[in-house]
Amino acid sequence: MPAEESDDREIRAVVDRFFAAFVSGPEAAARADDLRAVLLPEALLVSTAGATRASYDVESFIAPRVSLLGSGTLADFREWAVHARVDRFGDIAQVWCGYAKSWRRDGVAMAGAGTKSLQLVRTEDGWRISAVAWDDEPA
After folding, report:
1. What are the backbone angles phi and psi of residue 26, rounded to the nearest 5°?
2. Residue 79: Cβ within 10 Å count
3. Percent of the chain with pLDDT over 70
4. Which residues of 14-39 are buried (b: 16+ CB within 10 A; e: fewer)?
5. For residue 23, what is the DSSP state?
6. CA-to-CA distance for 26 and 30, rounded, in angstroms?
7. In a 3-state reduction of DSSP, which class is residue 132?
8. Sorted alphabetically, which InterPro entries does this protein's record hold (predicted)?
9. What is the mean pLDDT of residues 113-139?
10. Residue 21, Cα to own-chain centre: how many angstroms?
11. Whole-model pTM?
């Protein structure tokens, strides 16, 4: 397999693993460890969804999500990439992807969607996410 195909496959696998962390249930803390594995320790995550922009380091991003996804407040929550475009040059890559999410709150089915931009770098341990920015579609 050509190196480019192998890189793209590994990059997409990292992105899939990132999204797989966002599932409600008692294993939320274990999935957070998977999230830490694909993020650089110094990664920056920025949300422009909602009225104000919010910036997070890895732990300040993970902690409230583990709490929410593990609390039972959201039932059947999951988030997934709908489509993704990978742009790569050397040891840097960008993934531009649409995503969807669905869940139940107080028995009511809900859904949302948006776009994420993930920046990745090749490390000695493989491709890792260095930054994520996202925005949700208006409700």
Report:
1. -70, -15
2. 20
3. 99
4. bbeebbebbbbeeebeebbeebeebb
5. B
6. 9
7. strand
8. NTF2-like_dom_sf
9. 97
10. 7
11. 0.93
Which residues share a beta bridge with 105?
A: 74, 108
- Per DSSP bridges, beta strands 39-47 and 108-123 are unpaired
Q: Tell me the per-residue pLDDT of 34-54, one tens digit each, with 9 for 90 and over.
A: 999 999 999 999 999 988 899
* Structure tokens that stand for 121 in this block: 């770098």
- Structural domain containing residue 71: 3-136
Q: How many domains does the chain have?
A: 1
**Quick one: which H or E segment has residue 94?**
strand 92-105
Encoded tokens for 108 = 């009511």
- Cβ–Cβ < 8 Å for 53, 46: yes
Name, in order, each residue with C-beta under 8 angstroms of 97's C-beta and a sequence gap of 6 or more: 15, 81, 82, 83, 84, 85, 115, 116, 118
The CATH number of whichever domain residue 111 belongs to comes to 3.10.450.50
Determine how many CB atoms are found less than 10 A away from the CB of residue 57.
13
